[in-house]
Amino acid sequence: MIIAVDGMGGDFAPSEVVLGCVEAIKEFNDIKIIITGNEELILKELHKYKYDTNKISVIDAKEVIDPNEPPVMAIRRKKDSSLVKALNLVKQKEAHGIISAGSTGAFMAGALFIVGRIKGIDRPALAPVMPGKNAPFMVIDVGANAECKPKNLLQFALMGKIYFEKILKVENPSVGLINIGTEEEKGNELTKATYSLLKESGLNFVGNIEPREIPKGDVNVLVCDGFTGNTVLKMFEGTAATLFDVLKDEITGSTLGKVGGLLLKPAFKNIKKKFNYKEYGGAAFLGVDGICVKAHGSSDSLAFKNAIKQCIIFHNNNILNNIKEEIIKSNHIQNIDAMDII
Amino acid sequence: MIIAVDGMGGDFAPSEVVLGCVEAIKEFNDIKIIITGNEELILKELHKYKYDTNKISVIDAKEVIDPNEPPVMAIRRKKDSSLVKALNLVKQKEAHGIISAGSTGAFMAGALFIVGRIKGIDRPALAPVMPGKNAPFMVIDVGANAECKPKNLLQFALMGKIYFEKILKVENPSVGLINIGTEEEKGNELTKATYSLLKESGLNFVGNIEPREIPKGDVNVLVCDGFTGNTVLKMFEGTAATLFDVLKDEITGSTLGKVGGLLLKPAFKNIKKKFNYKEYGGAAFLGVDGICVKAHGSSDSLAFKNAIKQCIIFHNNNILNNIKEEIIKSNHIQNIDAMDII
């Protein structure tokens, strides 16, 4: 498998990106990595390590896309950016997949325009797997589509299910609809119409899931529009960060607290590890015709190595073809239904 | 001031409701309370305490609305319920305000149909004040309106601002728009159109606020549609609950952890107090023509007493008239604008 890596994306690029790539080719067989970006900087990093030089190559790219740039314009104008060059490798079938820790907006816009959608998927969706109390869960979409139609959410459910089955090896994954009440008639127009679609979909649909239940991780795939998913993701991060801040203030505020905090250090470490996104690789951008993984902006080499691992599992399990087959099947069903109605 | 209290609503009704009322008339002067509900049960509770019997009266109501009943139907059919009778007291100006810890849906439907809207307010909104790290903040709306128009959110902002100014004594409160990006052009159609309205509103509008920032409590009033607000509220509760669960498991999982946990007991107690919704009373249902406060379903006597205090401050600061005056002013401005365009 050949993986294109945007060498300049993310808070710790290119040093942590390069180190992640070096560690990955040592750990995983049969992969080659192409790093795009400022050749001089990247080679300087690479020269710090001993590695099989046949397995990592560099393609020079003079431009870098800033996370604050308007995404679509950045993709159109910066043809010589590390991101656009990496995406082009996927488009031209010179790489099977791409990883970037840079601008999420530019990544999604670029994947959409350069790599393109899978036929039959109307809206690709960003789908991170997050750590829950009892098990990891996926929220799909977390921001690619601020406005959605019920059909989009049905396709998100289908893609999420395939991902969970093939990558996380969960048999018949459960699918929930994020909603503000558990009853079928609750919510807005989108959730009401989506509920009916999911109920008839043949998926293991477990009904509406209130946001309060999400962090427990009892449901595998949680579908919603991108505005809601982004809100869920950021409230999850924000609430956890605030609580740990408050806890830290309390602990360091008294001698008793400091001693208690010291004794609980292993406990806090376990919790931190449990909720560490780095263990999960990146967020897959599902529905585009290539393996596109968005790594967290603050990814270190471990996060990069795991994102590369995620690409390999994605590739070896033929997820793209699985999605293509399932979408044809589901469209076939939809067409029959439409004919029945006529 | 006369306050109607739904004696049968909430997980701990009527015992905690009654105790809260008894404590309130001892602490606050110049109030009278009318408790609606099963007279026999309520009198039995009242007889446990010594109190000024001139200040609490009971109106018998044979029916109770269950939280699982469809709200509108429950309000229409159960005319002899504790909630409907309490709402009628407000409608007939026999009470200035009402508090209920029962079904949120029935409470909002009843307040809307029985008490009625303030003229000029298109959609009343449920507006809890929540504990943030640095200061309390309000999210408006958290579930009364799953679908909203930009104008609704502008009115939410106006009402939230008055509440913060008059009840929480914050001068020129800041107003933020909950959105999935900080830039003006981010979000869905609703947030984009609302941004323009808020920018021109004359309110202390601080722009888009990403959900990640909400728990910090740096912005006073956060406006959004009810679907988003409900998601924010429930993710806040759910993430906190899950994290404390995980922490508890870690602490009780080892001897070292147990000792550490014991030493940190005061710290945990402080945090619990800091994030205790009971200190804040209930969620005001703003935009109806009466003081309507929804207490948390699991309210104890302290939460009830604080909800009563909230009603008193609401009343003494003339919030309803303030909202009426501001809405006339703002509609006046809107009309002038409309004329300018023509």
From TrEMBL, chains A, B:
Major location (coarse): cytoplasm
MF annotations from Gene Ontology: acyltransferase activity
Pathway(s): Lipid metabolism; phospholipid metabolism
Cellular compartments annotated: Cytoplasm
InterPro entries tied to this protein: FA_synthesis, Phospholipid_synth_PlsX-like
Acyltransferase keyword on record: yes
Keywords assigned by UniProt, alphabetized: Acyltransferase, Cytoplasm, Lipid biosynthesis, Lipid metabolism, Phospholipid biosynthesis, Phospholipid metabolism, Transferase
The enzyme's E.C. designation: 2.3.1.274
Top-level EC class as recorded in UniProt: transferase
Domain of life: Bacteria
Catalytic activity field: a fatty acyl-[ACP] + phosphate = an acyl phosphate + holo-[ACP]
Known partners and oligomeric status: Homodimer. Probably interacts with PlsY.
Protein family according to the UniProt entry: Belongs to the PlsX family.
Function per UniProt: Catalyzes the reversible formation of acyl-phosphate (acyl-PO(4)) from acyl-[acyl-carrier-protein] (acyl-ACP). This enzyme utilizes acyl-ACP as fatty acyl donor, but not acyl-CoA.
NCBIfam families in UniProt: plsX
Listed name of the protein: Phosphate acyltransferase
Organism: Clostridium mobile
Gene coding for it: plsX
